[in-house]
Each structure stands twice: as C-alpha cells, then as structure tokens.
Amino acid sequence: MIIIVKQEHTQKDLDHLIKWVQDQGLAVDVSKGANSTILGLIGDTSVIDIDLVRSLDIVENVRRIQEPFKCANRKFHPEDTIVDVGGVKFGGDNFQLIAGPCSVETEEQIIGVAQAVKAAGATVLRGGAFKPRTSPYSFQGLGGTGIELLLKAKQATGLPIVTEIMSVRHIDLFADVDLVQIGARNMQNFELLKEVGRMGKPVLLKRGLANTIEEWLMSAEYIMSEGAHDIILCERGIRTFETYTRNTLDLSAIPLLRELTHLPVVVDPSHAAGIARLVRPLSYAAVGVGADGLMIEVHNNPQKALCDGAQSIKPDEFADIVRNLDQMLPLVGKKKVGAQ
Ligand code: PEP
Ligand code: MN
Questions:
Q1: Residues 46 and 73: beta-carbon distance below 8 Å
Q2: Residues 59/37, Cβ–Cβ less than 8 Å
Q3: Which of 33, 63, 178, 226 yields a CA-CA distance of 20 to 30 A from 275?
Q4: 268 lies in which domain range?
Q5: What is the pLDDT of residue 340?
Q6: pLDDT tens profile 87-122
Q7: Does the beta carbon of 127 sit less than 6 angstroms from any atom of ligand 1?
Q8: Which ligand gives the minimal distance to the CA of 236?
Q9: Looking at the CA of 162, which ligand is closest?
Q10: How many whole angstroms from 237 Cα to the centroid of ligand 2?
C-alpha cells in the first residue's frame, strides 16, 4: 500500500502518520520528491483500514498494491486448486456439470431428473431443499426432507449432491451433503460463511447479486480463513439496468478470476438469464471464456416446476448441450465432460 501525502503537510503531522503506521506493525519507506511525499507501507497491510487513512487531513490518496485476499490469491498459490466433490474433481483441466432442478419437489421428481442428467453426462446433482424466495408466500423448499430425498437420489445414481444452506441452525442436516452451496443472497452473511468454513466440506460460493469480484473473493477468504480450502466460485449473473434478462452474466469475471485466484470457477447460466432458451448459448459462452464447469437447472416438467420453471431446461435439451460441449472442450484445454 502506498500513501500519497498532501503537499502542504507539516513535519509534525507526517511524523505522527508514520508513527501510527509503525504502531500497526508495519515498516515505512519515505520517499520525498520535489512536489510530493510518498509513504510505502511494508508488511501485512490487511490490518490497515484504507478508508480511515484516506479520510486523514494530511492524506491526498491511498493505493493498494496488493489485493486484500491472501488465501484465495493466486500470487501466494500459483497452482490451480483441485476441489474434490465426492470423487468429482473441479479445477485444472477438468470440466464438470452440475445439473438438477431448482428445488427438490418429490422423490419421483428428484430421482427421475437425477437419472436423466446422469445419463446425459452430469457429474453432480443439484437441488434446493432450503429456498431463498423473494416472497414468504412462495414455496420455501422441503427443508430436511428435501435433503433426505437428495440422498436417495444420490444412492440411486451415485452422483454427489450440492444443496444450499441458508442458516447455521441447519448445519447438522448437511452432514452427508457433498458440496455446500452458499447462495447469492448470503454471499456476505459473514457468520454463515465462518460457520460453513468450519464444516470441513467443499463449498460452492455463488456471487452476490450486486457484488464486485473483490468482495466475492473476500467472502471466499472468510471461508478459507476458517480452514476450508476447497471452494468453487459460481458466477450466476449480477444485477444491472437490463430488464430483458433476470441478471446479466458477467463473462469477463471468469478470465479475470483465473488471474486473481487459484480456485475453480463455474458458471450458472440458468439464474443469469432467467430464460430457458438462453441457457444453451450462455453455456457455450462460459466454456469459451474458460469456466471449469456449469451449473444448470434441469426439470422433467418445467411448466409445473415449483420454482424457476421459466429458466429450467428439459433433460433432452441438457443432453444435446452436453454433446456439443464435448466438441468445444478440447479447444479450451479441458477434458471431456466428466472425465477424471
Ligand atoms: C439456486 O441455485 O437455486 C439459487 C437460489 O441461486 P442464486 O443464489 O444464485 O440465486
Ligand atoms: Mn433456482
């Protein structure tokens, strides 16, 4: 971090600022030019409140040289992290497909969809048991029963399962869940992030509806600083002024994250668009920009779905998308869908 000091400072104020920085355990390199004085802070600057420094009378500007995230930072961990979800590997040259309904509805529904997506090449089964709905009067999910049904579908197909956790009160119910999802609305629920970090399970961390890439990585940092290292990031679209789509898929986030972090990144085209017919082109686009996988909502009867029917595709369309992905993947240096 560097601090640019205002030209009209007094030596007393400068000494005071330097001492304040040193008192926080950092060394200071003072560079006095003809027109400006610059302080270079050396050490772990994450202890410094950058907004507080910026607000000081003597300070002209402050710049971070190093990102505030450490565990998630590729600079400190150049190799791709490979996250193992019940034997299914995310990251590196692997490409994986998470598929299933928005929410678990009945035993027949979840097992039927699980068998269909598995036959098409899916490697992880998704299904919401606790649903974060905008209206309290909408279907809220089957809760613990939903998780039991997911486990039955896992038993029937062998697919590992991912489902969203919304409250620390439900942690015990997730004992047999392979991948714990933090949804967009909870990306900055810091107490939940810390508790999930202590579960010792892989985590799928979705991007918040209106969060920057840095805020997203700081949320990964919350989980990782509790000892969990297996995090998969999921870009699911952000809120913009556009209203034709539910969200706007931030495709540039994927190659940027590749530079910033060693964590695998998957794309959810279903929530990004909110429209079933856009799932196919957005899936292809996600592969083109280097995603490590996709998370797609698939329902056997989208018109009757209790949640997100408009963005859900049928198993046969999913299978057709996967066939085309198999041809695209070698172009971006990824293995065939599901290959380990
Ligand atoms: C979901 O995956 O069903 C979901 C609710 O997603 P998001 O948190 O991205 O809205
Ligand atoms: Mn959904």
A1: no
A2: no
A3: 178
A4: 83-336
A5: 58
A6: 999 999 999 999 999 999 999 999 999 999 999 999
A7: no
A8: 1
A9: 1
A10: 12
